[in-house]
TrEMBL record:
Protein source organism: Mola mola (Ocean sunfish)
Domain of life: Eukaryota
Short name of one Pfam family: Hist_deacetyl
Sequence ranges assigned to domain Histone deacetylase in this UniProt record: 76-394
Cellular compartments annotated: Nucleus
Similarity annotation: Belongs to the histone deacetylase family. HD type 2 subfamily.
Any one cellular-component term (Gene Ontology): histone deacetylase complex
Protein known as: histone deacetylase
Lineage, opening ranks: Eukaryota, Metazoa, Chordata, Craniata, Vertebrata
Positions in coiled-coil regions: none
Annotated GO biological process: epigenetic regulation of gene expression
Keywords: Chromatin regulator, Hydrolase, Metal-binding, Nucleus, Repressor, Transcription, Transcription regulation, Zinc
A molecular-function term among this protein's GO annotations: histone deacetylase activity, hydrolytic mechanism
Length: 474
């Protein structure tokens, strides 16, 4: 016998996967090799020992120090209370004690440069305490180019939204990237079952050479690059369900067929921040078809909710993800689509429970190797509820099911139109206007019909072969 690790608990998949054809928005089949399986057998062991692999959590209070000098959180939606509240909630609900907490660390300058330019990394990844260790001549030239703006609150920012704290922002941003990276590496290697990174500042708007929208370093993109560089992971799926499009992540992998990027975001014909993420943005060169944008349009009439996000996962996200067959799933887990956010910061009505449900769906991929990293989300109750739901899902806990009325609800007309802008797959396009349960019943009916046809065909073949056998052997 051998030393065996627990197989990751994967909840039953609610819809069976059907193969897809190559389309504008679905990735081509790929023959890339799989990542190493996280279950290890040592034949020389004479006893069978089970090692329990737990979900991982990562957090560091140092990230709270990235604060505006004005000290007024009410003027800054992205503030330290976000991660502090989530971490406290996970403790109160007893979820932290059921997970393995990993040590935090700063991402190295080299890791940051796997996604960002050297100039960007030196501008925003160094502070007065460690600048002396670097080439002073080069550093002085670069730091003289750092452009800051005075904010209405009296503080300093790199733009009107994104605050800069000379002593703490670079460290917090590097810790966020280092935490997400290490969590992803440990999950990919099977040391952890899956994981959730409670980090800030967020990352998915940060581009190759520019901070944007509260973001300095693109933590999820950096983690993906390190999975490629350090572990030779062949296929990585990034799902970005923050209500704002992850323009920086899209840019980082736009021509890379080994990273499938799928974003669900409020688009409104380019009128919602940051303005990108049109369904026609599908990747370029070898990466064409590996960038999928579900850009919701139609504003808040009505606001998107559970029925619309369930329809998106059922008709676009999960079919394409199953076909891609990733080795690891990274989630840019922004929770600003959760009910409770103002129209300026989101305005959608997705429930926290729904995000737990979507997490369970993603756990059916990649042997359950799923890593969530906090992005946006600014209503404290909403982001705590959603984080609790997602960590509960990662733990495989029995969670309260979605209500019958939600499962029976059809997506709104604006959502149907938005999904039809993405879908070029007949199987999904035929059911996009159905409720979750209607689509499930149709799928089951079709599957049972095809089984009946197969059974009749096999009976016919047996009858033919019996007759043929009787003629040969009277």
């Amino acid at each position: 016998t051998g030393l065996q690790m627990d197989t990751p608990t994967v909840p039953a998949l609610i819809w069976p996967h059907q193969p897809l054809v190559r389309t504008q928005s679905s990735p081509a089949s790929t023959s890339l090799p799989s990542a190493p399986h996280p279950h290890t057998t040592i034949p020389s062991m004479s006893l069978s020992i089970t090692i329990h692999v737990y979900p991982g959590l990562v957090y560091d209070a140092q990230m709270q120090k990235h604060q505006c000098k004005c000290g007024d959180n009410s003027r800054h939606p992205e503030h330290a209370g976000r991660i502090q509240s989530i971490w406290s909630r996970l403790q109160e609900r007893g979820l932290r004690s059921q997970c393995e907490r990993i040590r935090s660390r700063k991402a190295t300058l080299e890791e940051l440069q796997s996604v960002h330019s050297e100039k960007h990394v030196l501008l925003f990844g160094t502070n007065p305490l460690n600048q002396l260790k670097l080439d002073n001549h080069k550093l002085a030239g670069i730091l003289s180019q750092r452009i800051c703006v005075m904010l209405p609150c009296g503080g300093v920012g790199v733009d009107i939204d994104t605050i800069w704290n000379e002593l703490h922002t670079s460290a917090a941003s590097r810790i966020a990237a280092g935490c997400v990276t290490d969590l992803a590496l440990k999950v990919a290697q099977g040391e952890l079952k899956n994981g959730f990174a409670v980090v800030r500042p967020p990352g998915h708007h940060a581009t190759h050479s520019s901070p944007l929208g509260f973001c300095f370093f693109n933590s999820v993109a950096i983690a993906a690059r390190q999975l490629q560089h350090k572990l030779n992971v062949s296929k990585i799926l990034i799902v970005d369900w923050d209500i704002h499009h992850g323009n920086g992540t899209q840019d980082a992998f736009y021509n890379d067929p080994s990273v499938l990027y799928i974003s669900l975001h409020r688009y409104d014909d380019g009128n919602f921040f940051p303005g990108g993420g049109h369904p026609s943005e599908v990747g370029t060169g070898a990466g064409e078809g590996f960038n999928v944008n579900i850009g919701w349009t139609g504003g808040l009439e009505p606001p998107m909710g559970d029925a619309e996000y369930l329809a998106a996962f059922r008709t676009v996200v999960m079919p394409i993800a199953h076909q891609f067959s990733p080795d690891v799933v990274l989630v840019s887990a922004g929770f600003d689509a959760v009910v409770g956010h103002s129209s300026l910061l989101g305005g959608y009505k997705v429930t926290a429970k729904c995000f737990g449900f979507l997490t369970r769906q993603l756990m059916s991929l990649a042997g359950g190797r799923v890593v969530l990293a906090l992005e946006g989300g600014h209503d404290l109750k909403a982001i705590c509820d959603a984080s609790e739901a997602c960590v509960s899902a990662l733990l495989g806990m029995e969670v309260e099911p979605l209500s019958q009325s939600v499962l029976d609800q059809k997506p709104c007309d604006n959502a149907i139109q938005s999904l039809q802008n993405v879908i070029h797959v007949k199987d999904s396009a035929d059911t996009v206007d159905l409720s979750y349960l209607q689509a499930q019943r149709r799928r089951l009916r079709r599957d049972s019909d095809s089984e009946a046809v197969s059974a009749i065909a096999s009976l016919s073949m047996r009858a033919v072969s019996d007759r043929y056998g009787q003629r040969r052997h009277p």
